[in-house]
Structures are given as C-alpha cells and as structure tokens.
Amino acid sequence: MANPIITLTTDFGLADPYVAALKGAILTINPRVTIVDISHAVRPQAIEQGAFLLASAWPYFPHGSIHLAVVDPGVGTERRALALQTPVATFVGPDNGLLSPALPDEVREAAWGHDQPVPVRLPAGYRAVSLANEAYFRQPVSSTFHGRDIFAPAAAHISLGVPLAELGPPVEEVLALAPFRARRQPDGSLGGRVIHIDAFGNLVTDVRCEDLPAERPTVEVAGRRIVGLSLTYQESAEIVAVVGSSGYLEIAAPRASAAELLGAALGMPVLVRP
Amino acid sequence: MANPIITLTTDFGLADPYVAALKGAILTINPRVTIVDISHAVRPQAIEQGAFLLASAWPYFPHGSIHLAVVDPGVGTERRALALQTPVATFVGPDNGLLSPALPDEVREAAWGHDQPVPVRLPAGYRAVSLANEAYFRQPVSSTFHGRDIFAPAAAHISLGVPLAELGPPVEEVLALAPFRARRQPDGSLGGRVIHIDAFGNLVTDVRCEDLPAERPTVEVAGRRIVGLSLTYQESAEIVAVVGSSGYLEIAAPRASAAELLGAALGMPVLVRP
Amino acid sequence: MANPIITLTTDFGLADPYVAALKGAILTINPRVTIVDISHAVRPQAIEQGAFLLASAWPYFPHGSIHLAVVDPGVGTERRALALQTPVATFVGPDNGLLSPALPDEVREAAWGHDQPVPVRLPAGYRAVSLANEAYFRQPVSSTFHGRDIFAPAAAHISLGVPLAELGPPVEEVLALAPFRARRQPDGSLGGRVIHIDAFGNLVTDVRCEDLPAERPTVEVAGRRIVGLSLTYQESAEIVAVVGSSGYLEIAAPRASAAELLGAALGMPVLVRP
Fold first, then answer.
1. pLDDT at B94 over 70
2. Same CATH fold, C183-273 and C5-176?
3. Which residue, among C60, C88, C159, C234, would best test binding to A if mutated, counting the most A CBs under 10 Å from its CB?
4. Which candidate from B62, B243, B250 shows the least CB-CB separation from C27?
5. Which of B36, B56, B245 sits opposite C23 (nearest CB)?
6. Any chain C CB within 8 A of the CB of A57?
7. Does the ipTM exceed 0.85?
8. What is the pLDDT of residues B219-239, one digit of tens each?
C-alpha cells in the first residue's frame, strides 16, 4: 500500500526550524507518511491568503490525503483546533476560516459581506471534531506552537487510521470565509478582486471562468480596460486577461510582471462586463 | 524495490501553489515516487539558467531517475512537449532547449554562435517522443499550465513503467542550446562567460577544468586579473579562481561575495590565458 | 520497516543546485531514505546560527535519525570531517562547532567565554570517528564540496547500517560551541543575547525558561523594559516576553515584527532580572 500523504500550508517561512519541527513531530508518530509542502510563504497570520493557497493546491492531491494548515494568530487563546473530514480528504488546523477550502462554496456564501469568518453548519457527508483529547497531543504542549504539539500529531494519528471521534468531541459548526468567487452585481457585471499575486507578477482574481460572460468580456482593473480573453500568456504584446490554470481569471503581461506594470495590490477591485 | 525518483526544476518559485499542484498531479498517478526539488528559483522564463541548474544536479541522481523540468514561456503555443530517454535517465519538459543537459556536448555544439536553440538529431542510444497522446494528460488541460496537466502526468506514467512509445509519436530532432563550455580562441585562450552566480556570490563560469591550461592560467574577469588556481575557497585573502564542485571554473572571495566585490553579472565575459 | 531519516541543515540556499546534488548523492547510495530539510537558510558560513537551527529542530525527529549539517568555511583545509553518535541520534558534518547540539550543555560549558569553539572530550555513551576512509567517499572528491562527496555519502552509508568504525578512526575530542544558555551574573540577573530572529520578527534569546526567576521577571532589551511574561503572542497590544515553543525566552509584538519595532539585531544583549 502506498504511504498516506500529509500536505503542509503555513506562514512559518523556510528559514526557521518550525517547518522541520512539524515534520519531525509527524514522522515520530508515523514515519511512513509522504509529506508535501504546499506553501510556507503565506504572509504572517494572513488567514485568507493561506486559505486561497490551500484551495489552489489540495484538489490536485489523491483522495484520502490529509491537509494540515497552520496560520494561527490566535494560538493559545480559545479558538478551537479542528480535524474536518470531507467526502474526499481530511483537513487539520485552527478554526479561524483557514480550513474554508474544505467546504462547498454554497456553504461559504453565508459569509458574503462579512469581514470576518462566520459560523456555518457542516453539510451532509462532512464531519468535524474539536481536537481536545490530550492523549493525542505532543507533551508538553507549548502555548505558542500548537502546529507542532496538537495539529501535527492529530494529522499523523489520522494517517495511522485513528478514527476522528477518538481525537475529540464532534463539532456541528465551523468558521468559514466567503468563497473565492466574484459576485454578480445588479447591472449584470461581476465585481471581484485581486486575491493573489504570483511569482511571475500575474494578478489572480476571484473571477471564476464559469461565471464569465459567453460574449467577449471586458475586464477593468487598475484603471486599465482589457477587451476579450486570451488563450495563452504569449498571445499579445499587451496586458492580457487569461483563464488561469486553477480556473480563475488572471491579468498577465507577456514576459513581464503585470503587477508591476499596473501598480496592482492584493484586494484591488476587478470588474467584468459582458 | 526502491521507489522511482522524479526531480523537479522550474521557475515557479516556492511561494505559489504551482509546485504543490505538480507534486499532487504526480502522486495522484503514482503515490510511490520519491520527488526531489532541484530548484524552483530559475528566473521567470530563463530557459538557459534552468538548463544550467538541471545540468549541475541531474548527474548526481541514481541511474533511471526521471528529470521533469518546466521553464515554459511558450506554454499553450505550438512548441512541442517532450519525453527524452538517454542511456542513463529520462527527461520530460518543453522542447525549447531546457532539456539540453540530457544531450552530449558534441551534439550541442551545433548551437555554437546561435542565440536561440537549434534543432539537432538525437544520437544513437537516445530516443524521444512528442507528448501527444491525450489519454495520458490530466483532464481538462489548462492552456497555461502544461506542467501540471501534461508534463507531470507523463513523468508519473513513465515512473509506473508506461513505455515512451505509448505517450506519443517518435521525434528525431530536438532543440538544443550550445554546451556550457568556453570556446578556444584562435590565440589559444579560452573565451567564456559567467553562467551562474550562486548564493555565496561565487561566479560560476562555463570554463571547464579539463580545458584549463596545464601551466598556471591567468583569469581575467570584470577588469581583474587572477594568476593561478587555488585549491580551496580559503587559500588566500584575495579573490581567487577555483575549480568548483561541478568542474567549472569559479571566481570566489574568501568569506565574501565575489559578485558584489567585482560588480559582476550573468553573461559577463571571462578570459583564460595560459 | 520504516525508511531511515536523514535531515539536512546547510547554508546552501534553495536557489542553487547544491542541495539537490547532496540529495542525489544520498539517494544514489540509499534510495530508501526519507530526507527532510531543517533549513538551508543559514547565513553563508555562519556556524553558530547553523548550530542553533539544528539544535531547535533535531530533538523533534525520531530516535535513530541521522542529522547531516554542512556549514563549512574550512572545506578543503585540515578541519576534520566527523560522524558523531549519541545515545539517540547520529550527526555528520565538519568538526567546527556546528555539531555542538549533539552534545550535552554541561560538556559545552567548557567553551564559555571563548569566541571560537574549543576541544571537548566526548562524554560516556557518545562516540565519533573522523571520516577518513576514502572507500566511503564519492569519487572524485571535490576540494570545495565535501558535503556532496564526503558527508552525504557517510550519512547514506550509516543509514544502510555501515558501522561507524568502518568510516574512519575514532576521535576522542571534538570542537564545541558554548551552550545556547544565558549565564547567571554575580548580581543574580541573567545575561543573554538575541540568537535568532525568526520570520515573524520575534527575537529568540538564549534565556531558557527553566532559568527564569519564579517571580515576575523584568526583561531588558534594546532599551526597552518588559515586566512579566505573557502566555501567548496575543495577550497584549504591546511588546511582550513569551516562552517560545523551544523553551527559549522570546520578545514578540502581537501581529507585528518586534525586530523592526525595536531595531534589534543578532547578538544584541538581553538582561533578565527577578
């Protein structure tokens, strides 16, 4: 049988020893897991960015993978620690919205218009527990590093087959962020925003390809108007709108950084008209 | 039996979720591979730098390893996708010169004096296919991320033992870059250039140790003249010329950055005289 | 049986092909090891920082793990190459103080007040060899990259079960750095320093939690006085002193960089009074 997979998404960076401590804690419990980094470059304590990176990568992993995410500004306070099982994967992390990508968009829509994550009920086929059973903690538990002492051990025990119910009491509601999806405006346009700027300087927006108008759309961002979609980054000498590899509309500049050319920043509004 | 090894060389960076998506796509097809990063810090779309980093690392991996490389400015255009088998390893990536390190230097010499990669015939013992069989693609295929949808699945299927011929039609010619090797000038000197600046600030040149004059060579770079070779980085208080660990001549400064001290840049000429 | 674990701590950075060459050299000898990066972001040739990062991570790995560390300004000179076995793990690297975290603090106290590492006798239960048996080197041995050609092969052979005594002659003394532990002053205060600044901007000091006064301590750093300890990073709107996850006193700013706010730097003194 192949080894179970645990992915990691954190704001720890790669210079410090924290990611290695997490991996050591996992391997001490289950030396047979395959650990894969999703990203450790989430900006410190940027829960929504962490959620977006997790959302952009977890669907490409095998069914049954365990996705451990730690962006945890509330570590040591009363925020809950969660393990959340969906029909295809298991997610482990703090209950602060970071695990939202585990939930269907319809459920996350309850958070529309809220700056903070809101409590939502788990849909059918999903279950979660609060990681409260100290028998599965690494001892002693640091008040500042639950990633190593609570989350990593939980993920490792799940990878060994420990049932979720062993790890703590069931939870009916979890905190969720609004979906990464531009909203339809009364005038028929889509009002979205820049949710990520990648290493190439491409602006990733929350406008989904399935929401794009069938006719040639017009995209407005940073005072620039782009007419029509391109199929590849190469197609034009100008700034282009492209459906990116994750199905989000991206603004790109051939062989250059669109973010620099446009002076764009995270959160900047994007408007799509038919 | 040990797990097959797939190495990765890309310009994706480590902050974005792209490398993880690549790994997830591989592990979904073959969860038993060992994946090793060579570098994801190739400058965006710098094909030659990607080729040099691949050339500097792949020979240290076990025979039979699969080397997946994606620096792909032409993604979605008509450039071909390749799998290339040599007597000791398999290479997968775009047909844009990036896979040149798979080829013998003699073959690559056809590209001497060309700015762009040139088509070369595969030598005996080498074979390649164009990755055209959609049955081995990840569906749907994104027009901007063949790494995840075409190259990674090809590498993973090869690691499972799928024969190359299954993946697409044979190819007789591939695009190659000139070898990383300074050329002999009419006056007997070697005319090379700086092809990499490492994290220590050492200048890595394309002057090969086997081409160095038997007598004490003189190295000229950035207006500086260095007489003789040192055996270690420590040997002198001055800037030294050393044969680096990959057999290339390097210019180094003990406990300091030679690149900063010399104001050196990629591509800067290097001259070696007997 | 689970695969043996080899961890890596180097100053190679992740952009260059050196880390990959190390991994390839290991996997060529033993393709079944699990390789885990501790950090490759040690500042170039900063032996003490490398030792601190190793010290902060290795204890979280399973017993029997092999910890390979290469921060090696003296490569190619006469410094020895070591494999050092403790009751719980094996360490491989240059004999320049980098492997100090393998040794008990009591032993390392011989280096108090010394700027350079000092020779110490190995305590009972510890043994070391000088890696001198060329049969276990990768050939040819580069004079500038013993990591790939001597240390990595040694670690890989140890992971295969090759006895230490095979790798070279026994060594009774190794070079050690002073422990990462603030010293008690004549007036009862603890005089320590900032030994690491993490990616969040938290100042990690060498003041150990077990040395802290039972009463509310006062911490002085960078002209600032902090009274009392916090339990979490969130507890206050001000700069706080917290016992960090590795048991060291840290200075942190909630949702901000304490290093920036205080203008702090590595080595800056920290004073703790009862």
1. yes
2. no
3. C60
4. B62
5. B36
6. no
7. yes
8. 999 999 999 888 776 666 789
Chain A closest-CA separation from residue C191 CA (Å): 24
Q: Which CATH class is domain B5-176?
A: alpha beta
Q: Answer whether A2 sits within 8 Å of B32, measured CB to CB.
A: yes
Contact A57, B20 (CB under 8 A): yes
Domain map (residue ranges) of chain A: 5-176, 183-273
pTM to 2 decimals? 0.91
Containing A50, the helix (H) or strand (E) segment is helix A47-57
Q: Which ranges of chain A have pLDDT less than 70?
A: 1, 233-236
Distances (CA, A) of A134 to A77, A138, C117, C198: 16, 8, 42, 28
Chain A (132-171) residues lying within 8 Å, Cβ to Cβ, of chain C:
142-145, 148-149
* Partner B contacted by A5 (CB < 8 A): yes
**pLDDT at residue number B235:** 62
Q: What is the pLDDT of residues C138-194, one digit of tens each?
A: 998 888 889 999 999 999 999 999 999 999 999 999 999 999 999 899 998 999 988
Do A44 and C234 lie within an 8 Å CB cutoff? Answer: no
Instruction: Give the number of beta-carbon pairs within 8 Å between A and C.
Output: 101
Rounded CA separation C57/B256 (Å): 28
Buried b (16+ CB within 10 A) or exposed e, B140-158: eebbbbbbbbbbbbbbbbb
Q: Please provide the average confidence, as pLDDT, over all residues in chain C.
A: 92
* The domain over range A183-273 is classified in CATH as 3.40.50.720: no
Nearest CA-CA distance, residue C24 and chain B, Å: 4
Closest-CA residue of A relative to C230 is A143
Residue C121 CB burial class (10 angstroms; 0-12, 13-18, ≥19): exposed
